[in-house]
Amino acid sequence: MVKNIKITRNSVLSGALEAHLAECERKGLLQRSTQEERSRSRQEAIAEFASGEDIWLFAYGSLLWNPTIYFKEMRNGQLRGYHRRFCLETVLGRGTPENPGLMLALDHGGSCHGIAYRIDRAVAEHELKIVWDREMISTAYVARVLPLVTDKGPLKAITFTINRNSKQYAGKMAEEKVAAVIARSGGPMGDCSEYLFQTIEKMAELKIQDKHLSLLASLVKTELSKII
């Protein structure tokens, strides 16, 4: 298996990420979605927008600090009815089969502040394929087009919510347990703690507040101090 791989625009477009995922699948760590399945869900999402209308994409996790796409505009926005939570178990990105990690997803309830990217309709298919080939690689996420409240008025955007029927759904865990997992997990794409801290750092830069993540970061730092 590839020991280290980063999600970049080039690693997606070159097929390096897909090759890594294929190797993970051969080892029984993943059941990949097919390109046909990805294309179908992508086209269904795009069809929610009027012909010729630019496409909006809502970012709440790694897409904040590593979008890997070209966009024309970004806006701070709030999604109601979902909140960001470390509820997606991973054994091939920032975790291993022996020591699974956790990544962010949108789960039901509450609200979430993030960033909406406006993608030129002329290149939307190409740019969104990049997003689908990094996010919609299994059944863990469900792509949805949902309304956002932004600083420049309401809009609708594509985003990725957790599939509660997926075996990767970790459910609601105690914060102390989540912190312990994050502090001790890592894999070919890096450590879970790095993922958390990069997200927190970018949110601070964008003036996005999330008390839950701030508390979690504090707990993770405590856990890391125990390891050291």
What would you note in describing this structure?
- The protein is α+β, with helices and mostly antiparallel strands and 228 residues long.
- The chain has helices spanning 9-13, 16-26, 35-46, 62-65, 124-135, 175-184, 192-205, 211-227, and strands at 55-59, 73-90, 101-119, 141-150, 153-162, 186-187, 190-191.
- The protein is globular, with a radius of gyration of 17 Å.
What labels describe this entry?
single chain, 228 residues, alpha+beta, five-stranded antiparallel sheet, two-stranded antiparallel sheet, 37% helix, globular
Major sheet details = 5 strands, antiparallel
Secondary-structure content class = alpha+beta
Instruction: Report the count of strand segments.
Output: 7
Strands of the widest sheet, in order across it, are: 1-3-2-4-5
Assembly of the depicted chains = single chain
Gyration radius from CA atoms, angstroms: 17 Å
**Overall average pLDDT:** 95
Extract low-pLDDT stretches: none
Distance between the termini: 28 Å
SSE run? HHHEHEEHEEHEEHH
Counted by DSSP, the helix tally is 8
